[in-house]
Amino acid sequence: MTKSNKLMGFLIVTLLLFLGLVSQKAFADSRLIIVKYGLSPGATGFSENQTTNDGLQINNLPLDNLGNELSVLSGIHYLVYEISPTGDGSELKATNPPPSSYTVLKEVADLATDSNGVASLSVSDGYYLIEEQTNPQKGLLKAALPLVIKAPVSGLNEVYIYPKSSVDKEKTGPPNKPKPAPKPIEVPKAPKSKDDSSKKVFGLLPKTGVASSLLLTSYGFVLFLIIICLKKRRKKEEEVK
Fold this sequence. Notes:
The protein is of the alpha/beta class. The chain is 23% helix and 22% strand. The protein folds into two domains: 28-170, Immunoglobulin-like (Sandwich), CATH 2.60.40; 205-240.
């Protein structure tokens, strides 16, 4: 075998290996990398020179559009859905797309950012909707707008996403617990009154004891008067006869 043939064989093998690597890279899954920074209250986004939204990683410490340095947030959840554009796909927007512009095919993942504020997921080719979830314990009271990513992104195997939402540290705390139901008001029972005849009105005395004796005396007196009247009447009748 001549040197030229050996060189030709080497070039063919090298070309095949190169094409294999290129094809593998072309058909490999894309990796979505979500990095969560909390904007300061009143900020609406990153500083102007950092707001690229091109899928590239921000290497320096991000600043918001008010000039405040940002810190990463852990424990922020993201729901990822695989979607299909409706119609010709012209209504599907990259940020906060209208629900009529897509159909949800399935929920792909429920991600949570780690201590570095990062959550990642490998996805195949297609459209994906990413929804941030509020977290009152972290001061995240209003979630970032939903995002749509079409994979693969040209020239990128790793696509960096920076959801933008404000964090109010003064309102950071556990979620409000429901107030316990108030206990029913207990009406105290009136204490039983003691029978004290000396402090009662005569007409309301029970017919026992002093009241009964007085009543019997009254009846006897009335009966005595009736007997006297009857005797006087009989005596007058006898005198007339």
